[in-house]
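Q: For a teaching handout, I want to show students what a protein-ligand complex looks like in token form. Below are the inputs, and the small molecule is heme C. Please produce the holo structure.
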Amino acid sequence: MANKSVWSDNRFWQRTATWVTGFAAVLLIWLTFDTSAQISMGTDEDLKQGVTKRVPGPTVINYKIEYLMDAKRGHEVPVIGGKNAEGRSAFQEKEKFFGRDDWTEEEAGALLHLGKLGSQAKNCMNCHTLLGNGAYYAPDLTKAWLDPAWGPEGSLQAMTGKNTKEEAMAEFLQHPSQYPTHERMMPNLGITADEAKGLVAFLKHMSSIDTNGFPRNFGKIQGAVHGK
Ligand code: HEC
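A: Here is the structure, written as tokens, with heme C included.
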């Protein structure tokens, strides 16, 4: 017994296994609670109080959203309502969404819900990825709202003949096959005007989520997609 190495001692391995399993269980439980807190949706009050949430409340659709480089974090982050002195969300600058920048929490929530149901019913994930989940036939939609091509001087907005980003996207979603923008065309999915509005709200909200810089190099990727 005296010369037995600890590495061949059964009790040593039993104890180690017990400790490792116990530690991993505690860690997983802690991570579960931490993640739930991180991904829980913020509220209108948070936005008004300038509280940054990883997933902002539905009324974020009333605000201007930009995607700016955060030098400290080394990737782009959504900046909501203009930026403050530190380059972070100032929650000040509003932006009209279908003519209004005073969508209430209930109205905005209902619109997002409609969009989410629409995205499931029409199975956008069959071709696109949302937050990285889905198929790779068409571009990731996580930050589609922030694609400059939908902006005032963008090729996609120009193509639809509309004057705002949200109207241009809604028009595209209702008649995608009229607007071949790429080698691959998005087929008509029978999306109604109301559904399109909901879907655009859903996409705008999704673009405001802090995804730790995912998808990587978004600006460059989108430039390549649309050959700008
Ligand atoms: C059958 C496959 C398919 C389905 C289903 C589909 N799409 Fe697309 N979508 C495409 C393709 C292909 C493109 C074209 C890519 C391009 O031209 O840049 C596209 C382009 C887009 C674009 C423009 C891309 C950009 O850079 O902004 C948006 C927005 C979009 N789809 C939203 C949706 C939404 C929302 C749904 C679900 C309601 C959906 N798509 C369902 C295939 C699909």
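A: Two things your students might notice: The first strand starts at residue 65 and ends at 70. Residues 6-39 form one domain.
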